[in-house]
Amino acid sequence: MRDAVNNDVLRKRAEAIQLPFPALGELQAIVDKEIEYQTRIWQADYESAVEAAEAVLGGLTDPELKGYRALWHYLAGSAAWYGERAGIGSLGAKARSHFNHAKRAAMDLPWLVKLARYHAAGELPVGRSPRLLQQIERVEGVLERLGTVTDREFNKREMEILQGLASSVGFEQAHVRLGEMLGFLAGKREVDASPDPWWVVDDLCFVFEDHAGATNDLLDATKARQAASHPNWIRDHVALPENATILPVLVTPVTKAKSGAVPHLHTVSLWEIEGFRHWAGQALRTLREIRRTFGQAGDLMWRAGAADKFEQAGMGADQVYDFLKGRIASGILVTVA
Fold this sequence. Notes:
The chain is an alpha/beta fold and 337 residues long. The protein folds into two domains: 2-123, no CATH class; 133-336, Restriction Endonuclease. The chain has 14 helices and eight strands. The protein has helices at 2-15, 24-29, 31-42, 46-59, 66-85, 91-105, 110-115, 130-146, 152-166, 171-181, 221-237, 273-291, 300-312, 317-325, and strands at 185-187, 198-201, 204-210, 218-219, 245-252, 256-258, 269-272, 334-336. The strands form two sheets. The chain has a five-stranded mixed sheet with strand order 1-2-3-5-7, with helices on both faces. 34% of the residues are buried.
């Protein structure tokens, strides 16, 4: 019985026809370059590692190897990234290019979408501010947290912000939430001498002195001094890049300042409170508009459209900075003896 089974196995083996493994020839031809890549990486010879990876990619042409091509674009991008970090600036562009190719070859891998957004030091994405791109990325997270199936939570948050900004009691908290909705890292701490809300994106920080509870039309020296000193507090308490730009902003309904306040206002920008409320309302309407077409994070077409809308509405961090930098409080408020 055992011999019969064995003979049957041998017969079937003899009759079987071995099908060639898809693209086996291509895989065999690139083995040397794959080994070379590993060797160069261990030697920290990143330029040669990128060259070896690109040689591997040059040999992978079969459509069946699309996933493997994505892997090697990722490996090439990683070697270029390490090279850029090691001081070979020219490899930064290669890193982004290979990460983009990896993403296109394997669209079902969300983490490759994030890698495709990588920018080497000193390299700016064409036509877009990196600060704006960071805002849009965070806006995606906000919209996801508020839900995309219904607009209940979005409506609730929008109403909280609008009602808060319309009052003096809830103004500061609404100011923080508005910053979060617009893609800033926003915060406020209730400690001695701390500022009112701050908004941060990348290396730019707006630090506000909210004067919504003003009881008259005159700014005194104490309030002016508070606004001017806020950048120092931010540097000591908020993690920012060493070369960050910090702009103090006074949000107020007053139109006059005491003479003793003026010397403190030469570096403080002024945002009239009604103008700020109008801008905030328009910003929230723009967010509602871009939310209509939002599906999930990582949609590059949606991001491009959202960035356009932000720029059109003056909601980008760079645009806000340009607007406020030209509005120095000491030159706008009327000085009163």
